[in-house]
Amino acid sequence: MVASRRALAVRVQEKLGISNVAAQRIVTAVVESQTELLVENEGLQVRGLGSFRVIHHAQTRARNPQTGEPIVVPAGKRVKFNPSSVLRRALSE
């Protein structure tokens, strides 16, 4: 099951002992700031969590799995995440 932004806000609220509205504003500010930093710098490293990197994806050809018809996947940017060793250890426990 994937946690939502709301679930993250609840965790922040519990850890900091603040109101739900304040926690939601903090989570929103963090997400918006991460997005801005990735757009501006093409990378972001958060110690204890991992690093986010913008990669450039070349145009490729593929097939529509439903029809088998060839399609073109346009070039663009994607975000790649590499977890930190701290996160990897926590997940393996």
Instruction: Decide which structural class fits the backbone.
Output: alpha+beta
User: Mean pLDDT, rounded to whole units?
Assistant: 94
Shape: elongated
The beta-strand count equals 5
Instruction: Write the element-wise H/E pattern from the N-terminal end onward.
Output: HHEEEEEH
Low-confidence stretches: none
What portion of the residues fall into strands of 2 or more residues? 25-35%
**What gyration radius follows from the Cα positions, in whole Å?**
18 Å
How are strands sequenced across the largest beta sheet?
1-2-5
Summarize the structure.
The protein has about 90 residues and is of the alpha+beta class. It is about 45% helix and about 30% strand.
Give an overview of the whole structure.
The protein is an alpha+beta fold and 93 residues long. It is built from 3 helices and 5 strands. Strand 1 (43-46) and strand 2 form a beta hairpin. The two termini are 18 Å apart. The model has no long low-confidence stretch (mean pLDDT 94).
Notable features of this structure?
single chain; 93 residues; alpha+beta; 3-stranded antiparallel beta sheet; 45% helix
